[in-house]
Amino acid sequence: MNDVTRPRILVVGAGFAGVECVRRLERKLAPDEADVTLVTPFAYQLYLPLLPQVASGVLTPQSIAVSLRRSKKYRTRIIPGGAIGVDLKSKVCVVRTITDKIVNERYDYIVLAPGSVTRTFDIPGLTEHAFGMKTLAEAAYIRDHVISQLDLADASDDPAERASRLQFVVVGGGYAGTETAACLQKLTHAAVKRYPRIDPSLIKWHLIDIAPKLMPEMGDKLGRSAMEILARRGIDVSLGVSIAKAGPEEVTFTDGRVVPTRTLIWTAGVVASPLIATLGAETVRGRLAVNAEMTLPGQDGVFALGDSAAVPDRAKDDENAICPPTAQHAMRQGKHVADNVIATLRGKPLTPYEHKDLGLVVDLGGTDAVSKPLGIELRGIPAQFAARGYHWMALRTNVAKVRVATNWTLNALAGDDFVRTGFQARKAARLKDFEFTDAYLTPEQVRAHVEGADREE
Ligand SMILES: Cc1cc2nc3c(=O)[nH]c(=O)nc-3n(C[C@H](O)[C@H](O)[C@H](O)COP(=O)(O)OP(=O)(O)OC[C@H]3O[C@@H](n4cnc5c(N)ncnc54)[C@H](O)[C@@H]3O)c2cc1C
């Protein structure tokens, strides 16, 4: 076979789902069976569950940015950029490269795995003043930002300025928000010892959520254990509360409290990547409505998975259940989609995806953790062992495993130096600046762009 006749498989997104899919395609397909192309803005797969540990300085950013090119079977063509629209009719994916060049990438099979972005609401000031915890740049930015609040509070003699710099608000009582608040509180608690001019009692962390329970997926007992750990550390947890408005130096809670703060971290859920809306296809709460084989009904050669797709959860009794947006599902779906793409290529039947949740692990920093692997409730050191063991095993390359283990050991033995790098100082830092949510085309713009390009060819 020559290049022209080889089927083109295009994978969009190099996260848990996309990378597992690509690696399996590389392993199982003969080189002349198909061309595999991957569209990704970054040169790494981000291990998101460990982001709070990057923000708190336990891990360096590089240790959770796993190389895409370190694989024995590596042969995928990588386009450095983001997909900004997909035209299902002409089978074209419109890509903006990292140099802002617009490229039309034609495909025979497309695997959509662009993940999710931070879910926001129409709350005054939220998108201007909140930080998210979804990208490596955000985690590194937040770390610098928190340390700079200590530096500036230390240098200031103004009590009002000190108060606003030393209070921190995290919104979202799911595992991401809880881990973020817990890990960052540990950072400020340890760092303040190096700031003799700061009264430690002025440092206050708030964790708030509109839901009545913290991490409901952990169950009542472990949720309560997590609350006790946070309370012991002085973190103020408020449930049934959200943000009414946010400003540069204070936030107002829905219960009327006004908290002086310059740090609002928003982790109140995710929504599918805006790329999904460019398809103009059916969605379930923003996620692309696919069947259990992870194909888009009525379309030839379109697969979607991970956080961006509503994959039926066949392990649950409820026939309307969809898989939760977790790495656990995304990784397994990635492998399964690769098998289904190969089956399609070879004219074999596709198989439905099914996976029973293995549970959740929550690292609250130090020896504090709560975990529920396979339904077994763990607290303290056994829970921490399960949490770190699980993440360590799930890291894709041995080099990443060594980096993470070395960082954990070094941090446990020598602590943190609380160094502010300043790499992103004075740069705009709003949610959309990190997550590029305004980069996408509308379905009409995609169509017009593709038709225009077709006429020029
Ligand atoms: C702080 C935090 C903690 C978490 N902890 C856990 C945990 O403990 N356990 C668990 O199971 N899950 C956890 N999750 C959830 C888990 O990380 C996600 O469910 C998982 O990453 C989803 O995988 P994915 O491949 O769909 O998306 P992602 O892993 O997010 O990958 C999407 C990829 O697509 C890229 N991309 C985005 N847009 C485009 C585009 N337009 N074009 C091309 N590429 C694009 C992104 O850069 C990214 O590389 C956590 C999430 C967060 C934020």
How would you describe the overall organization of this protein?
With 457 residues, the chain is of the alpha/beta class. The chain has 2 domains: 8-49 and 64-118 and 271-357 and 437-456, FAD/NAD(P)-binding domain, CATH 3.50.50.60; 120-268, FAD/NAD(P)-binding domain (3-Layer(bba) Sandwich), CATH 3.50.50. It contains 12 helices and 25 strands. It has helices at residues 16-28, 51-55, 126-129, 136-155, 159-165, 175-191, 220-232, 327-345, 380-394, 398-414, 431-435, 443-456; strands spanning 8-12, 35-40, 44-46, 65-67, 77-87, 92-97, 102-106, 109-112, 116-118, 130-131, 167-171, 204-209, 236-239, 243-246, 250-253, 258-260, 264-266, 270-272, 283-284, 287-289, 302-304, 309-310, 359-363, 369-373, 378-379. The protein has a 7-stranded mixed β-sheet. Helix 1 (16-28) packs parallel to helix 8 and helix 4 (136-155) runs antiparallel to helix 5. It is globular, with a radius of gyration of 23 Å. The protein starts with 7 loop residues before the first strand and ends with a helix. Residues 12-18, 39-42, 46, 48-49, 51-52, 82-83, 113-115, 133-134, 175-176, 273, 275, 306-308, 325-328, 330 line the site of flavin-adenine dinucleotide (FAD). InterPro entries: FAD/NAD-bd_sf (IPR036188), FAD/NAD-binding_dom (IPR023753), NDH-2 (IPR045024). Pfam families: Pyr_redox_2 (PF07992). It comes from Streptomyces cylindrosporus.
Sum up the structure in keywords.
FAD/NAD(P)-binding domain; five-stranded parallel β-sheet; 457 residues; globular; 2 domains; seven-stranded mixed β-sheet; alpha/beta; binds flavin-adenine dinucleotide; 33% helix
